[in-house]
Amino acid sequence: MSEQTAVVFDLDGTLIDSVPDIAASVNTMLQGYGLDPLDRDTVQSFVGNGTAFLFSRVCDVRDVPEAERDQAYKTFMDTYVDAHDLTTIYDGVTDALDRLKSAGCVLGLCTNKPTAPMKSVLAQLGLAHYFDAMIAGDSLEKRKPDPLPLDTTFTMLGRTRQFYVGDSEVDAETAQNAQIDFAFFTVGYHKTTVAQVPKRWSFDHWSELPDLILG
Q: What is the pLDDT of residue 132?
């Protein structure tokens, strides 16, 4: 049955811990305006709804003047696009992806991260070759939790058994909206308790996921 299976993954907080680099890019921008930096937990709480949302929350918290925000966003993105020196792959991810691929599954990526930083970090970490389809936050006119990005990714993969893997409330809502079974990675960037996140499965380490998917 695995040859009929498609598994789509979120990126930030699911496959990779990227908040240290995102926070560094945020704080580089803030420093340029003479503003105090934000700690990791604060920046992490803004991750999940796309870069524009994150940037807007940063600006609101630190009172970046409205007239400066377009330039501030450009400054942030100039750093963020290639920010991956502090980003790490969660333990067990590559072994799990290898096992799923070896079993005949096709794999996809559906993230709210923009295309340029998505491609850059995947190339840097050596993950790009795993995915037969990738949809980024700027690929379509809508982003998660709208079901369109996830539906599009699965359409590109063309399999009948479909599972989505993510780490946040946004991912859980996306899976619900697309009516796709959801596997929840509990170590990621969720804001509520594990019990509050709707899911078919939850897992604490990537070594657990292949058995959930493959049965």
A: 97
User: Which pLDDT does position 124 carry in this prediction?
Assistant: 96
Asked if residues 51 and 137 have their Cβ atoms less than 8 Å apart, the reply is yes
Structure tokens of 26?
Answer: 């945020």
Q: Average pLDDT of the chain?
A: 96
Residue 92 gets the label, from left (phi > 0), alpha (psi -120 to 50) or beta, of left
pTM of the complete model:
0.95
Of residues 8, 3, 1, the one with CA closest to residue 155:
8
Buried b (16+ CB within 10 A) or exposed e, 134-152: bbbbbbeeebbbebbbbbb
Residues designated catalytic: 10
CA distance 28 to 175: 34
Contact 50, 117 (CB under 8 A): no
The tokens describing 119, both together, are 């491609």
Q: Which letter, b or e, does each residue of 107-121 get, where b requires 16 or more Cβ atoms within 10 Å of its Cβ?
A: bbbbbbbbeebbebb
At 151-182, the pLDDT tens digits run 999 999 999 999 999 999 999 999 999 999 99
